[in-house]
Amino acid sequence: MEYVETIYAHPSFNRNRDPILEVLRDWLPPTARVLEIASGSGQHAIYFQAALPATKWQPSDPDPDCRESITAWAERKKSTISPPLSIDAEAENWGISGGENFDAIVCINMIHTTPRSSTDGLMKHASELLPKDGLLFLYGPFKRSGQHVSESNRRFDEDLRRRNPEWGIADVEIIISGAERENLALSEIIEMPQNNLSVIFKRK
Ligand SMILES: C[S@@+](CC[C@H](N)C(=O)[O-])C[C@H]1O[C@@H](n2cnc3c(N)ncnc32)[C@H](O)[C@@H]1O
Q: Could you tell me the pTM of the whole model?
């Protein structure tokens, strides 16, 4: 049987890549070493690495099919991203050795498709891994003050919760409180197209 590699392509990538890139361009130090959590297809890591060539991107995903997709895209695009790591945000140990340092952690569209424990793990490890003033960048749909910001987000949330009762669009204020408990201070909330937010924290 012919082997066909796994290569994913998310339609949302084509819509959100440039708005996210503009925020990252404003916030990331030019030579930032970036750890991406929940890289999915790998398209974002490859796009941002190419657009910000002095940065160094380390993609990751716990799903082996996603890691295969990341590797396949990287080969296809001749990308200089690092080979993907298997990181489960909830895991006690992320398997990052002491010698590996990151200036920023980027996590796009994970929070609403994982249980709260994954977000808690993300915050805990970000706090441990990042240096002072290191950045945690989150992107995705969020509620504000307990309310959906659009009817389409409300319907999306219902659909997510039907698929998995532990998933769903989180309240950004709850995410911010969780981050504060882990020494991550909110720097900015930026409204993005299609009712998404970029939420940026700095390690205190
Ligand atoms: C909706 S996709 C987003 C993928 C990509 N960031 C994007 O925006 O296209 C969610 C991703 O989260 C990953 N994921 C699920 N549980 C996770 C966990 N506990 N830790 C890290 N990533 C997780 C999935 O494998 C999947 O690739």
A: 0.96
